[in-house]
Amino acid sequence: MSVDTRDIFLEAAHFSPLAVAGQARAYGLHTDASHRFERGVDPRLAREAAERATALLLEITGGEAGPLIEAADESKLPDDREVVLRRTRLDQALDKVLPDDEVGEILERLGMSVERVDEGWRARVPSWRFDIAIEEDLIEEVARIHGYNQLPARHPRALLGPRPDNEARTPLSALRQRMVSRGYFEAVTYSFVAPDLQETLLPEAVSPVLANPISSDLSVMRASLFPGLVRALEHNLNRQQNRVRLFETGLVFRGELDDLDQVPMLGALICGSREPEGWSGGKEQVDFFDLKGDLESLIEMGGEAEAWRFEPGAHPALHPGQCARVMYRGQEAGWIGTLHPAVRARLGLKTDALLFEVRLDALTHGRVPAFKPLSRYPEVRRDLAFLVDAEQPVQALLDTLRAQAGEWLVEAHLFDVYQGKGVPEGRKSVALGLTWQHPSRTLNDDEINQLVDAIVEESRLHLGAELRA
Question: Which residues form a coiled coil (predicted)?
């Protein structure tokens, strides 16, 4: 436009909020118009805006106005809305009876055309009040104009009984407190993650993609807690925090929107030294069994430790030799292991990290503790050292042992694993401690020897285990 300009063409248009929402962010172009249209503008305002702009031009510069050409598709514009306000519903919501004339006057002062009907009032909503669509909106407007301070304040009354407490469940607060007591800090991360990070950790994961993400690196719903914990680890390592112990609880989202499974999970991540820096602390780094011990501490809170198993498995984000599937009552409940070296290299991490993720419903499920009287009779202990294949899980040996040890076995635990001099190559020595105790009499050596013989024979037949001399 210059001093020689003689013809000016003005355009005024209305844009639907649904069509404009998110587009300014997608194009990186934020304007006053985008903010206004995203929040809603009167669809009938375009004609008035064009007339007003024309009037201002004529007043300032002079000239002659041309014809106003209007192109509108009425089928795409919002319909005129009529909302019925019932007298009974208004009295119930406000807990006060307002005169009919006052209610009608309030609605008219708000620019509505009001018609008295049998059940109350029928209000024709003006086009600029796109926030009024249902009866409750009219009630809110009447209360606002009448004055909230003029409405009676009455406390609700209800017969409330004591809330039942399921003693068989471990509260989430107790799990959090246990993690904190073991040196962890709770992390709270977004439920949205970067698609490339989730693809790196979980290449086969399927989760919803956001149509209007807050940023490009938070555009998919998380299918696991691992991405958020790994991102938090990167943040800490970049700030010279080399000893990291984090845990998080939250939902993960698996599947598409029409078949979405939202699963509450508890996850944890550790890296760095086993003990905090100090004159009495060593420099040993954390390993798989440090993290496994922390998870077993949570499992023991439910009182069903025997219902849990750690089985070898393969997870794309975890080291194939340091990874286990966590099983609860025969069903998969989660994963534990060391971050895969290839994944760690792809993410640019220079230190090993260990993670676990377990379903919360399994961790919180347990049983009510029951009293069992202490036996007054002595315990009998036997230590057995077996030679088994180096790849043989100790859990299989413990399961066989418990099946043959009888009903008076009170404890069976592993206290040594040895490979080296005196042990054939490809084998390992596993030492187990077994304790028996009868509630009403003293067990004799013959009874214990029979049980030990049955354990040794069953272990030899099914696991190829030999009793070490």
Answer: none
Q: How many CB atoms are closer than 10 A to CB 41?
A: 20
Question: What is residue 261's three-state secondary structure?
Answer: strand
Q: Which residues contact 417 (CB under 8 A, 6 or more apart)?
A: 394, 428, 429, 430, 431
Fold held by 172-364: BirA Bifunctional Protein; domain 2 (3.30.930)
Burial (0-12, 13-18, 19+ Cβ within 10 Å), 207: buried
Residue 437, number of CB atoms within 10 A of its CB: 18
* pLDDT more than 90, % of the chain: 58
Task: Answer for the pair 83, 137: CB distance below 8 angstroms, yes or no.
Answer: yes
If DSSP states are collapsed to H, E and C, what string results for 110-149? CCCEEEECCCEEEEEECCCCCCCCCHHHHHHHHHHHHCHH
Supply the DSSP string of 343-362, one letter for each residue. HHHHHT--S--EEEEEEHHH
How sure is the predictor about 437, in pLDDT bands with cuts at 50, 70 and 90? very high
**Span 260-274, pLDDT tens digits:** 999 999 999 999 999
Does the pLDDT value for residue 74 go beyond 80? no
Q: Report the topology of domain 380-467.
A: Alpha-Beta Plaits (3.30.70)
User: In this structure, are strands 244-254 and 261-271 parallel, antiparallel, or unpaired?
Assistant: antiparallel
Q: Which residue has the higher pLDDT, 18 or 438?
A: 438
More reliable by pLDDT, 49 or 246 = 246
CATH for 81-150 (3.30.70.370, 3.30.56.10, 3.40.140.10, 3.40.50.150) = 3.30.56.10
The class level of CATH for 1-75 reads alpha beta
Can you point out the beta strands (E) in 235-317?
A: 244-254, 261-271, 308-312
How many CB atoms are closer than 10 A to CB 86?
A: 17
How far apart are the C-alpha atoms of 101 and 104, rounded to whole Å?
5
Residues pairing with 412 in the sheet: 434
Q: Which residue type does 26 have?
A: A
Distance CA 295, CA 185 (A): 15
Strand partners, 323: 337
Can you give the residue ranges of every domain in the chain? 1-75, 81-150, 172-364, 380-467
- Cβ contacts of 41 within 8 Å, gap of 6 or more: 14, 15
What one-character DSSP code corresponds to residue 277?
A: S
The predicted model scores a pTM of 0.67
